[in-house]
Amino acid sequence: MTRTPKLKAKKPAPQPTVNGVVKSLGDLMRSANCSKALQFVPELAWIFFLRFLDEREIREAAEAEAQGVPFSPTLPEPYRWRDWAAPDAPLRSGKKSKVWKFVHQSLLPALKVLKDQPDATPRQKLVSEIVSSVERSRLDSEPHFVEMLDTVHEIGREIVDETQLFAPARADFPLAQVFEEFLLKMSAKAHDGGEFSTPPAIIQAMVRVLDPRIGKTVYDPGCGTGGILVEAGKAMRAHAGNAITSAELDTLRRHTFYGRENDDAAYPIALANLVLHGIDEPHLGHGSAPSSPGANGGLMDGAPESFDCVLSNLSLLSRGSPKGNEPLMPDDSRMGIAHMLQHVLQSMKGGTGCGLVLDDRVLLDTGALAPTKQDLLEKCDVHCIVSLPAGVFPAAEAHARLNLVFFEQGQPTERIWYYKFPELPAGKKTPLTPEHFEEFFRLLPERADSERSWTVDFAARCQTANEGAGPLREAAAATAAWTKTLEKELLAAREAQVDTEVELQALEDQWHAALREAAETDAKAAMIEHAIYDLRALNPRSRAALVIDDDRLAQLFVVAEEHGRAVDGALARLQALLRQEPKL
User: Fold this and answer.
1) Secondary structure class of 512 (helix, strand, coil)
2) 3-state secondary structure 272-317
3) SS3 61
4) I want to staple 34 with a disulfide (CB 3.0 to 4.6 A). Which of 39, 80, 169, 173 is the partner?
5) 318: which DSSP letter?
């Protein structure tokens, strides 16, 4: 009896995953001469956006038809994805594809001028901004470009990420997941776009502290690739849950998120990232934060002057390697920080909450930044500072320690609660996770003291500084008054043409010494007053807090030298004036 051999059942093809698609696209980009994420993520930004836009408008057109209402597409033929990029698109029929020529000679030029139409819609302005810096594809050939289009076209609901199975069901969600994964890979490398991104666990902690809700506006004046705004949107949507109304959803998508980004590469990435995450109208300006809202492609038109919640990573403004052991920032970096902090204060209204990432050197500086920090502490309640472990930001210097600074507009600072992370092996392969913040959030509600947390009475610190500087200010004022008397005597002696040069020189020396004494006494008072603006997290339980460290000494020396140079310059000018021949 002949037995019929049993046929082995074919295993179903493995379900595609986000990581699999990311790897596939990454391999393709590298083979197409785009070896770095900072090269190919801008390419994917506009490609993913146009794919999403077409998919979204196909659904919207069907819904409009079912309701019997008119629908106007953002892009006319032949600029829709289905007309040129889809596998069955007319431009791809025949033996030879016409896509490469069409993209460079027709598509990109047409999309860039959409915003210039008199009746341009918000979406059309958005399209123009996303492709604004795209001159041509970064890929090296048409075959590679077409292969990329096919891969992106196939990203759909069948793509699975098991960690996101309970995420809100959205038709564009797989595209957002894949794009987000590319941004995470980019942010992990300091030399490959990490300067535009903040680690997810840190963003999540910042958003959790401020806890924004639907109906509140959120602003990031240096938004990079938009990660902070995206995370705020996720948190606001999650808090509303299934009870969210259509009006709330419209507010979240159209009237909530604002920001600015100066970098040409990061700006379109941020726009695409926000749109892919369900933010239909991201109001992002392209330019430095304090620039006028009207000059940003219309995306900031109608933006409010102040916001309910401000979140930003300003740590990169303080970059610049000091010379030798010099801990101070370059002068232009300090000016940039001061400028941005002032802009943040101007963007806040009573009750606005703010969370910033700031370099330790910003918290340390009691010289050039002292007036700005004084303004911050007098206008806002700086209630919490978190000192992060070194190495958590790929783009920061290896030794740099960064901080999360939280404050609220309306009341001056009286008490600051500090939490200092233990030293962790934080880095590219061991990033911070939400679990690392568990102790912080357990202590935060009561601002409780522990081995790693403590409270500084800032009001008492100010009072002590005023008591110490007061007598010096009085002494400086008295000496300054004496210098005016000496100056009059010296001028009178010169006009009287005193016979003895020795007597005249002695009077001039006395005036010179009094001027220097007044300036030096005033400088000592300023150093005492400004010392309170050293806001670094120095745990009072550690030995380090009991000693003045090298960088603090260097800071004081630099301040003293600055005052000394100012005094010398003033003396030189006055001496030149006094040596002039008296007018008869």
Assistant:
1) helix
2) HHHHHCCCCCCEEEECCCCCCHHHCCCCCCCCCCCEEEEEEECHHH
3) helix
4) 39
5) G
